[in-house]
Design brief:
With 225 residues, this protein is an alpha+beta fold. It has helices spanning 2-26, 37-46, 54-58, and strands at 80-81, 95-97, 100-103, 114-116, 121-129, 133-142, 145-154, 166-167, 172-175, 190-197, 206-207, 216-217. It folds into two domains: 2-46, no CATH class; 54-221, Glucose Permease (Domain IIA). The strands form three sheets. Strands 3, 5, 6, 7, 8, 10 and 12 form a seven-stranded antiparallel sheet that branches. Strands 1-2-11 form a three-stranded antiparallel sheet, with no helix packed on it. It is globular. Bound molecules: zinc ion (ZN).
Length: 225
């Protein structure tokens, strides 16, 4: 008698398990139910890159400074600079400018000028470097390709984030270095912004061959507003 009871119990348990499985797999899903695997799959399908137009992607790049477009008055992307012909005097550099220079307005000479991150991505370098004073590099994606963004002539101690920290577009990265000081390596107070293709760090401000400019992207195609 006890044997039959155990067999009956096992059969009931098996039926119970089968019924439970069927009920789970046919359970209706509420729209936006984040806890159900199916609805998570649907959500990610909605935000898949294929559905985002290039214009929408570009819109996520922020200007590094306010009134950015008005500030590009001296060295734009790709300009060939020599000590004799440079719009900045005196000049010590020669070559094709790999980035865009954003000038300060006269009233900003002795005030704090904050610089914003132009994209979402990690801070991968901050140091003092020849030609820049303080320089920061951020890794980002642009049109689904990896790029590194160089922010030159910053006050190094104003960069609060550490290497590896994430920055969102529009977050304050730091401040412009003081004019003609070690913070700018003796340069005028301004921002040098360049976007280098790929994930390798390259902070060169000038290249000697025009063809080498193809390794950089004109920041004003994306971040001058
Ligand atoms: Zn520059």
């Amino acid at each position: 008698m006890k044997k039959y009871f155990i067999i009956l119990l096992v059969i009931i348990i098996i039926f119970g398990l089968v019924f439970w499985r069927v009920k789970i797999s046919t359970a209706p899903t509420l729209p936006g139910d984040q806890t159900h695997p199916l609805s998570v799959t649907n959500d990610s399908a909605v935000s898949a890159p294929a559905t985002v137009s290039p214009a929408q992607k570009n819109a996520v790049l922020k200007a590094p400074l306010d009134r950015a477009k008005e500030r590009v008055t001296k060295k734009y992307f790709g300009i060939f600079i020599t000590p004799a012909s440079s719009p900045v005097q005196p000049e010590r550099f020669r070559g094709y400018h790999t980035g865009t220079d954003f000038e300060i307005f006269p009233e900003e000479l002795n005030t704090v000028v904050p610089v914003q991150a132009i994209c979402d991505g990690k801070l991968i370098l901050k140091k003092s470097a020849s030609g820049y004073g303080g320089v920061a590099v951020q890794s980002c994606n642009l049109d689904n390709q990896p790029v590194t963004v160089v922010y030159g002539h910053l006050k190094l101690t104003s960069i609060a984030k550490s290497i590896g920290d994430n920055l969102s577009a529009g977050d304050t990265l730091g401040q412009l270095g003081a004019a003609y000081s070690p913070e700018t390596d003796g340069e005028r107070k301004h921002l040098h912004l360049s976007i280098h293709k790929g994930s390798a760090i390259n902070i060169l401000g000038y290249v000697q061959n025009k063809s080498a400019l193809s390794d950089w992207v004109d920041p004003c195609q994306y971040a001058c507003k």
